[in-house]
Write a structure and sequence with these properties.
Radius of gyration: 52 Å
Largest sheet: none
Distance between the termini: 97 Å
Number of helices: 2
Number of strands: 0
């Protein structure tokens, strides 16, 4: 029983360690995505500033101002692409976790089914063995009774056989005397 409890404890603690590692990896991935989203917000702020920047003559936008705005937009698009990539990884990770949980559930259900079938077969074997024990106990009781009866009969024969033998020999003598008297 101790071994079963020890094995169960090790399996449960191992599952918690795996779950904790999974949660840690998930949180690391979420933190990456949050950092990228913060960078995106920061770049949008830079883009807003670049739209209002006018360094040209008479307060007009120059080619450099427009190029700077376009560069910031390009960085935002690249950042968005990276966010989508990281989100896909996060979603794939979640799908993996879901499949792993389903697999564990199926494994546990399989174990439970096997345990139940083992318990059922052991209970059936136990019932068969109980029946055999009852038969053997009845047989043993009959044998004991038979032995006791034989011992009693043997003792009775020993006790009564001697006087019966004397009685029979006396009857034989009488008969012999009668025979002899009848011949004369």
């Amino acid at each position: 029983m101790r071994y079963i409890a020890l094995i169960a404890f090790l399996l449960i603690s191992n599952k918690f360690l795996v779950a904790q590692t999974d949660t840690t990896a998930y949180n690391v991935q979420r933190n990456k995505i949050n950092k990228l989203l913060d960078e995106r917000s920061e770049r949008f702020g830079q883009y807003d500033n670049s739209l209002t920047k006018r360094s040209g003559i008479f307060g007009l936008k120059t080619k450099r101002d427009m190029q700077a705005s376009n560069d910031i937009l390009t960085q935002i698009v690249l950042n968005d692409n990276q966010i989508f990539t990281e989100l896909k990884i996060l979603l794939d990770y979640k799908d993996f976790e879901k499949k792993e949980v389903e697999t564990r559930a199926e494994t546990v259900e399989g174990r439970i089914d096997r345990f139940q079938s083992t318990i059922t077969s052991l209970q059936q074997q136990n019932e068969v063995l109980k029946g055999e024990v009852e038969k053997l106990e009845k047989r043993e009781a009959r044998l004991k009774s038979s032995i006791i009866i034989l011992v009693i009969l043997s003792i009775g024969l020993l006790i009564f056989s001697r006087p019966i033998g004397l009685f029979l020999s006396a009857i034989k003598k009488l008969l012999w005397i009668d025979r002899q008297n009848g011949k004369e």
